[in-house]
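Anyone able to model this chain together with adenosine monophosphate?
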Amino acid sequence: MEAVTRLDELRGKRAKLPDPVGFVPTMGALHAGHASLIELARAQCRSLVVSVFVNPLQFGPNEDFSAYPRNDDEDRRLLERLGVDLLYLPDASEMYPRQLDVFVEPTGLAQYFEGEKRPGHFRGVATVVLKLFNMVQPQRAYFGEKDAQQLAVIRRMVADLDIPIEIVACPTQRDAEGLALSSRNAYLTAQERRNAPRLYEALRLLASQLEAGIRDVAALVKTAEQLLPPLREDYLGVVRPDEFRPLWTAPPSAELLVVGAAYAGRTRLIDNVKVQTPSKQEVQKT
Ligand code: AMP
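re: yes, here you go
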């Protein structure tokens, strides 16, 4: 594996890689969730580029940018083992040599949930991902379903801006208790870690009731949120995966996502679960 920190070096090495090139953007502190994206990319592409960049533009002023876990040596060893060809590790001055004047601004998709709770977050994500796409010029890029609203924003950016890159979605990796793997889990105390799977339990309860044909989302959220304490709810909701607007009545025969965010102590967890709602006829039969 070659590792580069400068854009001119990246462009030089990238030009020599055989196509198709797969690309996995990350913020480092890598875990088995990241590894699953990299393994899929390795299996599908002749060349594989990974970036590690903690993007200041996507953190709010009161968020954890300076505390965000960094684990460069271990990350490198893992990436080497996974057969990555080229690792791009820019620092902030390489990524943002001057103050940006032009940004990518998702609008409708960033209105609710993560977008509402973290103003400016998706603008930071979409802008850095487009910059990375232009730097790496991959044929395919891999994103986790764990960050489902981010995935929707990236897919929409690629469609709206005619970016010639295939976006590949990868399933959420969890620990044995169901907690979605996340770099931020490193912040959890032992007690918080025991409580953290409650978010997934609440989402699954909501999903199972939607699958049983119950359509009143507000009532379902009320029941599910009782499972959360001592986690503190940030939001729970039901959306179409390509729209991310809160639904108050679940439509029949629809593929939906149950989405949620909650705090374990000061650590913010997010997660989601897919659900297929039954048709009207299926509900009448039961
Ligand atoms: P991050 O380093 O948190 O920015 O994540 C980099 C990529 O890994 C994103 O596309 C995430 O959605 C994905 N990812 C993070 N955690 C998981 C997980 N538990 N399962 C699958 N993908 C994940």
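The pocket of adenosine monophosphate is lined by residues 26-27, 33-34, 36-37, 143-144, 146-147, 170, 172-173, 180-183 (CB under 6 Å).
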